[in-house]
Amino acid sequence: MTTTTRELSGRALATLRAVGAGRAELTSAREPDLYVDGLPCCDQTVTHDLVHAGLLRPTSVVAWGLRVRAELTDEGRAALGAA
Hints:
Blueprint: H1 10-20, E1 24-27, E2 34-36, E3 39-40, H2 44-52, E4 56-58, E5 67-72, H3 74-82
Antiparallel strand pairs: 1-2, 1-5, 2-3, 4-5
Helix pairs in contact: 1-3
C-alpha cells in the first residue's frame, strides 16, 4: 500500500512525530497497539493504518502482547519530512 503525505491526517502525522521522537512503543500483536509516553494512543485505527502502510514498525520481535519501542521506516521518515 502506498500512502502519500496528503492522505495523512493531522493525527497520523502527530503519531509519526511521536514515533520519530522515540516516545512510542508498539505491542506485539497482529493489530499492534501504540503507546505514547506510556499511555495508550487515542486512535488505534491510525496506528493500524500506519503499520500496514509500512510507515512505522517495532524495533524488534518480542513475545506476544509485550511492548517494544516503535520506529519509523524509511517511508515513514519520507512521509514525515514531506509534511
